[in-house]
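Could you help me review a protein record that somebody else here produced? Do not assume that whoever made the record got everything right. The record follows directly below this note.
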Amino acid sequence: MLIRQATPDDAEISCNILRRSIIDLCGADHNDSPEHLTEWLRNKTPEIVRGWYSDPEKFCVVAELNNEIVGVGSINAKGEIGLLYVSPTARFRGVSKAMLISLENWARSRQFHEITLLSSVTARSFYEAAGYLENGIPVRVFGEAIAYPMKKAIAT
């Protein structure tokens, strides 16, 4: 597996991974509701993803298995993880964990003291296993979906 910094050229395949992951793996969050899916997928377009990958305030990564992009992750200059999605075909193969480690290492290299994120219901146990703790009351995102504010202290 290779974790590398994303480039604007990765935007289209990354967008497809984001959309497939949300649709196929996050059913506990959107409950197959067309309205919730529409809201969640609204900003998952190649143009918007290309903008994220070009943003100097974000560190974005892709994961490759057998020279195929199978995961997408990002963290911003405030230490907030914004994306961590894996292709349904690559689930349970260590892709999310490898990307999370890469994002955490980037934050450490910038001497951040903690990382924050909003976890979906689907990803909550994954983040807890990685040492993230709840950090406030759940919030609504993308219509009716629930997100859990979480944080992790990191050594610098």
Observations:
- The chain has one domain: 2-111.
- The domain at 2-111 is CATH 3.40.630.30 (Aminopeptidase).
